[in-house]
Specification:
Blueprint (H helix, E strand, L loop, with lengths): L1 H33 L4 H6 L12 H7 L6 H32 L5 H10 L5 H14 L7 H7 L5 H12 L3 H9 L4 H12 L1 H16 L3 H6 L8 H10 L6 H21 L1 H10 L5
Protein name: Sugar ABC transporter permease
Membrane topology: Multi-pass membrane protein
Organism: Paenibacillus apis
């Protein structure tokens, strides 16, 4: 009887998780199904499946409007996102290593200032940052995204790496030092392989946030030839008075595929990094 009760409870848990998963995934399912609908079906029907299938939404949507298509927007987005992610990882690891393993003057003050930047609303720094980048001649380029990432301006990522490195035993550093390693080789040969879960977490977060960023992109990028995917989707809405929503939805589906693929490919390390960050070794 006890075994039967446990089995029943397990199946109930599975059923609950399946239903919860369907509720969470339903918007994506609706988005994919709506890419095959007409405008009348999208706005006039509550059903998931279309009454009339439209098969050319992806092909027409990929062509884009005017001179540039979504292939150009995807290339632009990768050109923006990949350096930003790489520089964010490198700078966050280096700064976090310094905070977690070294003692230097004003360390506590600098760490407090870094944490305090997390509490600054984006609206308060938007105008000063725009003026600064304008004076430096960086507007209508990807430099406002890439260069700050190289100087560890993402306090959240630095803090995440600090907490993870603090959880690694200092005995590893001491053993490596005895074997002749300096501070740089301790980081590259000993700590970095162990920091892989946290590094993947930083990379995934930064990739998804930069890929989906619309607000900063529309502020700093003005040339259509440099538009990212998010701006390309907005351009599709402004191109004509009669919007083909199935094409917009189709390109929205395509635009989220890289984020989904990246998450599932790195899911193991991502979950491990989130679950172990902040634990003492």
């Amino acid at each position: 009887m006890r075994g039967t009760g446990k089995l029943k409870g397990r199946w109930l848990n599975y059923l609950f998780l399946i239903l919860l998963g369907l509720v969470m995934v339903y918007p994506l399912i609706w988005l994919f199904a709506s890419s095959f609908k007409t405008n009348a079906d999208i706005f006039g029907s509550t059903g998931l499946l279309p009454s009339t299938y439209v098969w050319d939404a992806y092909a027409l949507g990929w062509q884009g409007t005017g001179q540039y298509g979504f292939l150009d927007f995807f290339i632009n987005t990768f050109v923006l996102v990949i350096p930003t992610v790489l520089f964010t990882i490198i700078s966050s690891v280096v700064v976090a290593y310094g905070f977690a393993r070294f003692k230097f003057p004003l360390k506590t003050l600098l760490f407090s200032i870094m944490i305090a930047t997390l509490m600054l609303p984006n609206a308060s720094i938007m105008i000063p940052r725009y003026i600064l980048f304008n004076k430096m001649g960086w507007l209508d380029s990807y430099l406002p995204f890439i260069i700050p990432a190289a100087f560890a301006t993402g306090a959240f990522f630095v803090y995440l790496m600090i907490q993870f490195i603090r959880g690694l035993p200092r005995d590893l550093d001491e053993a490596a030092t005895i074997d002749g390693c300096n501070s740089f080789t301790v980081l590259t040969r000993v700590l970095l392989p162990l920091c892989k879960p946290a590094i993947f977490s930083v990379g995934i977060f930064q990739f998804m946030w930069t890929w989906n960023d619309f607000f900063n992109s529309i502020i700093y990028i003005s040339s259509v030839r440099k538009f990212t995917v998010s701006l390309g989707l907005r351009l599709s809405l402004d191109a004509s008075s009669a919007v083909s929503w199935n094409q917009v939805i189709a390109m929205s589906v395509v635009s989220i595929v890289p984020c989904i693929l990246l998450f599932f490919l790195a899911q193991k390390y991502f979950v491990e990094g989130i679950s172990t960050t902040g634990l003492k070794g």
